[in-house]
Give the backbone structure.
Amino acid sequence: MEILVYRDMQPNVAESGKIMEFGSIEREIHINASPQVVFAVVSSPEHLSEWWADEVELESAPGAVGELAWNGKTGTREMVVPFTVVEAEPPRLFSFRWVYPEGEAADATNSLLVTFELVPSGAGTVLRLTETGFREKGWEIAVLEDQYKEHCMGWDFYIPRLGEYAVKLGSLQ
């Protein structure tokens, strides 16, 4: 089984001569697995830790607060990020807010919103990822640019891993 399509939904701004707005990141991938499998892969701690963060503490219910952690080379937690579930509508939609100050509730002014939309496509699923809220965070332009580029590179690394893992998981069921 293979992943059919992965694409960056945004034009190459550097080549087009347009000014980059840093408003949202959009990615799309076709995965040869059912929406139910893909939903589990994007919303369950045991699956998220297979393709994304090293440690995931989360309940897949709107309003639930958890955390994502990435370990350093020594195996100790190097980066911990709070995570709040916004929507969980199996098997079509999962969204969460992250990258907000510890101890604060996530909202539209202090966090980024990630949405996974799942659309049945033949025997598989089209997953559309959108991440928004970069400008709303109020970062200085240099920080905004760095964060936007870092998240673009991150999703370009992790979304194919998500697809590969979902195909593998789907083939086991």
Observations:
- The radius of gyration is 16 Å.
- The chain has one domain: 5-10+26-172.
- The beta strands are 5-8, 24-31, 55-57, 65-71, 77-89, 93-98, 112-121, 124-132.
